[in-house]
Amino acid sequence: MRRGFAALFLGLSLALAASPLRLATTTSVHDSGLLDAILPGFTAETGIPVEVIAVGTGQALAIAGRGDADAVLVHAPALEAQFLKEKKGVLHTCIAKNRFLIVGPPQDPAGVRWETNVLNALRKIYLKGALFVSRGDNSGTHKKELELWQAAGLDPRGQPWYLESGSGMGATLVLASEKGAYTLTDLGTFLFMREKVRLEALFDRDDPRMINQYSYMAVNPERFPWVRFEAAKKLRDYLLRPEVQETIANYLKERFGQSLFEPLHGRCLIPVP
Amino acid sequence: MNEILEITLRSLLVSGSATLLAALFGLPLGIWLGARARPQRLAASLLYAGMGLPPVVVGLLFYFLLSRSGPLGSLGLLYSIPGMVLAESVLAFPLIAGFAMAGVAAKAEPVRRLVKSLGGSELQVHLTLLAESRRVVVAALAAGFGAVISEVGAVTIVGGDIRHATRVLTTAVVIETRKGELERAAALGVVLLGVTLLVTAILVVFGDREAP
Amino acid sequence: MIAAQNLEKRFPGFLLRVPRLRAEPGEILALLGPSGAGKSTLLMLLAGLLPPDAGRVERTGPAVYLDQQPYLLERSVLENAAFGLRLKGVPRARARRAALSWLSRVGLEALAERPARGLSGGERVRLALARALATEPKSLLLDEPTANLDPANVARVEALIGEERHRGRAIVLVTHNLFQAKRLADRALFLLAGEVVEEGPAPAFFEAPKDPRTRAFLSGEMVW
């Protein structure tokens, strides 16, 4: 009980001290627990506590775009480019990547499993009219999905088999599993949820279109003078450190038999101008 | 386990403070409206409409108010407990004022008749009505508290669900569900239910005691 | 004594006019009439709970009005009985002592510490009577005190009303129960659609009513 109160007061005083760095990030990074594995080291070293707001990429950029966060860690290159162009963000840095997969029911009614080209896989789903769940929440994964449909020359919106969940990746996987539907997911969330859903990775290939790139940006202090830019810069430098990048590479590697995230050391695979 | 306790205490802190803040303004207003001899139709319909305020809309409103780019941005209250308390108190206010108004209005006429018929003054009518409103006040407080502690839309938008800072029971349930930790989410849900029932029960027992 | 002269009260579509009304100390005046005749309104005018549009009410000493459904405070039986005295500024201990003796008069002393809300219908009326009588009013204005009570409680409340008459209080009693009116009343007043049809000493009123409408009402032929 006493420890609970102590923790509460600690939490309170941290919240009221108004000194923490506020990082808006995506649910996929947060819910995987990766940040819990790397941020305490940063706080211990710099004395800067980090408050994480886990939302979709679209909302994370919206929050940061009003100066309500000091930095973002997101995964939607097109939105990031726009954020930079609007002079809302600076110090764009590619931190890590993994990949997107198409998952679906083991029966695979559209035969996605045999496709080597993701656009053809989507075309098969479209032609078959197989159920597909979209995030529909302007998140990085949702943006990627819309990009892929567009690249395939298709517009699934309004089709009876095209469902929009409006929720996070985990909930969307559960929904797809219950409905026996396909969906696009990031690798990390799927690995976490794999035991809990009746879904298989049906398109899981090294396709440049399926790269899921996570980038860090500081919020522009010239535009939003109250942001903690120095702290945000320190966090960027910390994330790029070889040993931290190593931690990212090894995070939960043993548990899943593969890396959840691969470090990028600041080198973007998808260019963000 | 410790984190659940921490989250539970924070939920109680936020909802309790919001209820008290709302009661500070809502109870006097509700009792005053209820004690008026003529029915206050406009005020009543405003309060009843306010009971249906969608939490996400209130949350969004407070997001824009408290955002650093918003009118109250310099206070730095977005993603903080005081900010959450403010938004929640706006949600609790119409419930508390409305329940108090309806409860007092139902008693106003019989109490007035009783006190007047025994030769009491107008002041004594109001004092008696206030004393007789204890149960009404308790019902109003319980309604307000129950609404805000179980609310998720506004606390998510205004609080941001920051671990060790603004995470409360409802947002914790959401995040555990999102992570697929359904058992943990269910456990938190049970805690939420238990806390709500416990607080309501304490309020009711407290309000049910006969005055000396 | 309680009396009224040229009393008028207007509501939309309703006019109550009472040229003369009088209840002397030690006298029970029964107000009779069908529902909607204006009996309760008249009683509230006499009690001063409603302002008349014309005319005036005279009271020698305080008058206490007893609601058809008396409101009991969310307190103990004893605190309810002491409430009228407390309103008058009587110190708590003295008010409680006086209230307790009134509770024993109405047969509720055993329930003194119970919450008043738990009382039965008959007990509620008796408690309300004790609360009213504890303030020692000169007049009592009773609005159907025995409606919905069982016969034992009716007898009990009637006995109490009779005792209070003998103690010199002026009592105005609204009742639907003609037998009760005959048993208790010294005078009777028959009200119909806001008009006083007939008023007089009880024996004459009941045995030889002058107005045909009174006759019809008393014989139960007035159908409303």
What would your notes on this structure say?
- The complex is a heterotrimer of chains A (about 270), B (about 210) and C (about 220).
- Chain A has helices spanning about 1-15, 25-30, 35-45, 55-65, 75-85, 120-130, 140-150, 170-180, 185-195, 230-240, 240-250, 255; strands at about 20-25, 50-55, 70-75, 90-105, 130-135, 160-165, 180-185, 200-205, 210-220, 260-265.
- Chain A is α/β, with parallel strands linked by helices and about 270 residues long.
- Chain A has two domains: about 1-100 and about 210-265, 3-Layer(aba) Sandwich (D-Maltodextrin-Binding Protein, domain 2), CATH 3.40.190; about 100-210, D-Maltodextrin-Binding Protein, domain 2 (3-Layer(aba) Sandwich), CATH 3.40.190.
- In chain A, β5 (about 130-135), α7 and β6 form a beta-alpha-beta unit.
- Chain A is globular.
- Chain A contains twelve helices and ten strands.
- Chain B is mainly alpha-helical and about 210 residues long.
- Chain B has a single domain (about 1-210), classed as MetI-like fold (Orthogonal Bundle).
- Chain B is built from nine helices and no strands.
- In chain B, α4 packs antiparallel against α6 (about 135-150).
- The radius of gyration of chain B is 19 Å and the shape is elongated.
- The model of chain B has no long low-confidence stretch (mean pLDDT about 90).
- Chain C is an alpha/beta fold and about 220 residues long.
- Chain C has two domains: about 1-60 and about 140-225, Rossmann fold (3-Layer(aba) Sandwich), CATH 3.40.50; about 70-135.
- Chain C has helices at about 40-45, 75-85, 90-105, 120-135, 150-165, 180-185, 200-205, 210-220; strands spanning about 1-10, 15-25, 30, 55-60, 65, 140-145, 170-175, 185-190, 195-200.
- A six-stranded mixed sheet of chain C has the order 5-6-7-3-8-9, with helices on both faces. A three-stranded antiparallel sheet of chain C has the order 2-1-4, covered by helices on one side.
- In chain C, β1 and β2 (about 15-25) form a beta hairpin.
- The radius of gyration of chain C is 18 Å and the shape is globular.
- In chain C, about 45% of the residues are buried.
- Chains in contact: A-B, B-C.
- Chains A and B meet through α1, β2 and α8 of A and α1 and α8 of B.
